[in-house]
Amino acid sequence: MRKPDFHLSWSLALNVFFVCLLGAGLNSIPAPFDSAGIAVFGCGAAVYAALRFPPLLSIPMALVISAPIWFSDGSIVGKESLTLLPIVLSFFGYQKSLRQIIKIGGGFWSIVFVPILFLEHALYDTENLNLLLSGVLVTWISGVLGLVSGHFAYLTTHGLRRKLSYEPEKVKLNFLLSYFFAGCFFVASTAVIYLSVSLFQQQQERQIKGYMAQRVAVLQQQLSDFISQHQRVISSTAQTLSGDKRAEQLDARATKQLSIAASLYPNFITFLVTDDSGNITHTYPPNLIENVRAGVLPNVAYRPYFFKAMQSGKPYLSNVFQGRGFGNDQIVAMSAPIKSEDGKPIGIIEGSLSLKSFSIFDELSLNGFSLLIEDQKGEVVYASETLNLRPLSKAPTYPCEPQCGNEIQDGPEGKTWLRYKGDIAQANWTVNYYFKQEYLLSSMSSYLLKDLLLLLLLSLLGTITGFLVARMISMPLRRLIRYIANFDPSTNRESKIPHQALHIQELTSVNAEFVKLEQRLLKAFDDLDKTRAKEQQLNVELGELNQSLEARIEEKTHHLESALKSAEAANTAKTQFLANMSHEIRTPMNGIIGSCELMFEHNLPKHIASRAKTISRSATNLLLILDSILDWSKIESGKMGIDNRDTQIHELLHSARELYLYSADIKDIAVDVNIDSSVPSALITDAGKVSQVVNNLLSNAIKFTDEGTITIGAEYRDNHLIIAISDTGIGISEDKLNTIFEKFEQADASTTRYYGGTGLGLAISKGLVELMGGEIQVKSALNEGSTFTFFIPCKEGESGAVKTMAEIATLPENIHVLLAEDNDINAEIVMDMLKGANVRCIRTRNGQDALEAAKKYAFDVIIMDCQMPVMDGLTATSLIRKQGKNKDEVRIIALTANAFEEDRQACLNAGMDAYLSKPIRKRMLFNTVAYQLAKS
Asked: Up-side HSE of residue 74: CA atoms within 13 Å toward CB?
C-alpha cells in the first residue's frame, strides 16, 4: 500500500465528512421503482473518495457510504459487489492514469461481479427470465453509474489539477471524448429512464390499487347479497312452516318446502327441521332421516344455530365449522325459528351452506388476484388457492394490525402483498383482496428490461457520437500535424494545407494562423539564406583578420605579462622599502625619544626641559607620520587585522583629550568631552584602531582650528558606538567633501603649505572604520567648522575586564637580563632604563654571542633585537629554546624596529614571548618585563 501523502487538517476532515454524508444520504434514498436488483445513487461518492484519498482513508469512507445499502432489500452478492467496487478502485486505481482507472473499475465490475450476480439471481428468479435479467442490469447500472459519476467528479474537482509523480499518460482525443460523451449519455439516459420506469410503475400500482379497492367494494355488496339471499330463503321457509297446523299437514308441507328450497338454491348441502326440543323431524335429502332414526344425529339442541335461533326468535348465521352426522363438509349454518300462531318458537329450520359456493366470486377476479373471506372469529371461510390457506384455519394476522397499510410485508408464503379489505356487515365477516408484489415486478420487468436495453443502446450511441465528434476535431488536427511535420521551406513552396467540407471555426483559425506563420517562415528562411551568404563572406574576412589579430593579441599579452611582473616587483620593492625605512628611522628615533625620556627623570633647567620636550614632540610627530604611512600600506595590502577586546570608551576618549591638550592650550582652544549616559563602561571593540581614528580626527580638528572649542561626543544606540569630533575651524567647501577621504588629498593645495600634513589621516581613518564594519561621515560649512562622525558596531563588554597599565610597573630585584643589541645608542638607553631599577644586565652585540651567553648563564629575561650581524635574533631565539641553560623558563622579548604584523608573528613563531617595537618607552618596557615574569 502506498504511504499516505496527506496531512490531517480541518479542511480535510470537513471534506471527508461532506463526502461521507453526501454518499450515505444518496444511498439512503429509496429506489425509484421496485425491481429484483439494487438501485442506489451514492456509489459515486465512494468512487470519488477512492480516487481522491489514499486507501488508508478511502476504505473506511467506502464502508460508511455503503452502510445504508445493507439496510435495504436486495441480493447479498449485489450489496457486496457495490461495497467492494470502491475498495478495489482504492487499492488498484489510486493515483493511476485515466485508462487504468477505467480498465480496473469497468473490468472488475463487468467481468468479475456480473457473472456472480447472474448466478445468484438465477437461483431465485428461475421462473421469470425478464425479472432475472432486469435485476442483474439494475444492480450493474448502479455500479456503472457510481463509477462514471465518481470518476467525473474527481476529474472535475481535483484530477485535472493534480501533479503526477510519473510522466502523464498520453490520451487520444477520440478515446477521451468517447468516454465523456458515453458517460454523459449514460448518466442522462439513466435519469430519464429511471424516471420513466418510476412513473410507469406508479401508474401501474395506482391502477392495480384502484382495481383492488373497487373490487373489494363490489365483493362486499355481492357477498352481502349472496348471504342475504340465502338467509331469506331459510326465513321464508320458516314462515311457511309456522302457525297451528296439523302434523300431517306440517309433514307434507315441510317435505315440499325443503325440496323446493334445495332445487332453487343448490349451494345448500342439506336442510333439517327440528321441534322445540331440538329433535330432527325432517331432512333434505329425505334419506338422511334414516340416519337420524338410526341414532346418528337425533338431536341438535346443543348446536348454536338451534339455541341461538330459539332464544332470539330471529334468523341466525353461524361461523364456519366442520359438519358431523350428515357429512364432514365445511359449512356455514343458516337457521330461522318456526313459530306458533302466538309467535312462540316451536322449532327451527336449518340450511347448511357449502363453503365451496364462494368460489364463484373468486372466478370473477383477474389473474394474479386472490380472495380471502374470514368470519368474525378470524377463521377462513374461503381462500384462493394461491394463498395456500385451508377453510376453518386461522386467517393470517400481522403485527401492524389494525394500522396496516395496503402493502403487507411477510404476508402469505412470506412474500410481499398488496391487500385491500372490507367488512361484510350482513354477516360480520371480512373480505380480503390480495395481489402478490412479485406479479407487479414480473409485469414491470419486461418494461424495465426494454428501458434498460434502450439505456445501453443510448450509451453506445453516446460513445459513437463522441468518437465521431472527436474524429471531426482530430482529423483536421492530424492533417495539420502531418503537414507541419513534412513542412520543408526548400521543397514545399507551392503546397497547401488540406481542407475539409465541414469547417470548424476554431480549427479554421488555426489553419489560417499557420498559413501566416508559413509565409513568415518562408520569408525568414529566404532572409536566412541571404544572411548565410553574407556570413560566409564575413567568415573569410574574419579569418584574414584573425590571423593578424592573433599576432597582435600575443604581442599585447607579452606586454601585459611584463607590466604585471613589473607591478609585482614594484609592490615588493615598495613593501621592502617601507620596512627598511621603518627600521632605519625607528632605530635613531629610539635613541632620540629614549634619551629625552631619560633626561626627564632628572631635574633639568626650565629652558633645557622645554627644549627636550620640543625634541620629544617633534620625534613623536615624525613617528606618527611614519606610522601613518605604514598603516596605509597595511590597509592597501589587506594585512590589517582586527583585535576586539573589552575597551573602556570613557578612559579612551579622555586619554585622547589629555594627549592633545598641550597642543590645544598653545592655540588657546578648549577641548570638551561629552559622553552620553547610554555609553556602557566597557564595549567589545578594537581599542587601538578606535583610538587611532579619534587621534587622527582630533589632531586635524586642532590643526585646522584657530579659535573656539573642539568637542568629543559619544553615544551608544542599536548596538553601535557613535563618536563625533566637532570643531569651529576653517571648515570644508561642499565640492571638496567627497575627496577629503582620498589618500594624499586635502581640501585645498594651500592647506598643505599652511597647515602641513601628509593627507593620509582621513584616508587611514576611513579604512580603519570600514575595516571594523562601520561608516564615517562629515558635515561641514566653509569658515564655520566641521563635524566628523563615525559609527562602528559593537556589543557591551564586562566592566571589570579592562585593565590599564598607565603606571610603570616595579621590577623584582636581582633579576638577570640579557640584552642582545648591535646598536650602541639603543643598547645604552635600554641599559640606563634598567639600571635605575637595580637590574643586572649583560649586553651582547649579535645573536651568536647571545646564544653562547644563554648556554652559560640562566637568565630571567632576554631582550632580543631581531636584526643583528653574525646571527639574527630569530635564529638565536630558536637555538636558545633548544640549547639554552634556562631554555624553558627564560622569557624572551623581541626588540625591533620592524612594525608590520608579519614581523610580530615571525617573532612569536621563533619562540619569543612578547614583542616591542622601537622606539621603546620605559613604561612599555617595564610593564612588558613585569608581565612576562609574572606569567612564568
From this structure: 27
- Bond before 285 cis per omega within 30 degrees: yes
Angle between helices 76-93 and 55-70 (to 10 degrees): 170
C-alpha cell at 527: 532572409
Strands 683-685 and 645-647, sheet pairing: antiparallel
| C-alpha pair distances (Å), 696 with each of 134, 661, 662, 736, 738 | 107, 14, 16, 19, 18
CA dist 652 and 649 (Å) reads 5
436 CB-near residues (< 8 Å, 6+ apart): 368, 370, 386, 415, 416, 417, 418
Q: Which of 452, 457, 459, 460 is nearest to 35 (CA)?
A: 452
pTM value > 0.85: no
For 381, the grid coordinates are 371461510
Average model confidence (pLDDT) across the chain: 77
Are 223 and 355 within 8 A, CB to CB?
no
- Bond prior to 919 in cis (omega within 30° of 0): yes
Q: How far apart are CA 150 and CA 52, in angstroms?
A: 10
Query: Mapping DSSP to helix (H, G, I), strand (E, B) and coil, where does residue 732 land?
Result: coil
The predicted-structure confidence for 451-489, as pLDDT tens digits, reads as follows 777 767 777 776 777 667 767 776 777 776 776 766 666
Please list, in sequence order, all residues whose beta carbon lies within 8 angstroms of the beta carbon of residue 421, skipping any fewer than 6 positions away.
216, 430, 431, 432, 433
* C-alpha Rg value of the chain to the nearest Å: 65
What are 280-298's pLDDT values in tens digits? 888 888 887 777 777 767 7
**Which of 731, 720, 722 is CA-nearest to residue 674?**
722
d(CA 671, CA 657): 7
Q: Which of 327, 255, 323, 251 is nearest to 291 (CA)?
A: 327
Q: Which helix (H) or strand (E) holds 432?
A: strand 429-436
Q: Is the pLDDT of residue 753 over 50?
A: no
Contact 40, 27 (CB under 8 A): yes
Length of the chain equals 936
Quote the pLDDT of residue 610: 60
Between 9 and 374, the more confident residue is 374
The values of phi and psi at residue 630, to 5°, are -65, -40
Burial class (CB in 10 A: 0-12, 13-18, 19+), 425: exposed
Distance in angstroms (rounded) separating the CA atoms of residues 102 and 139: 18
One-letter amino acid at 821 equals: E
DSSP labels, 761-824: HHHHHHHHHHHTT-EEEEEEETTTEEEEEEEEE-EE--GGG-----SPPPPPTT-EEEEE-S-H
DSSP state of 299: B
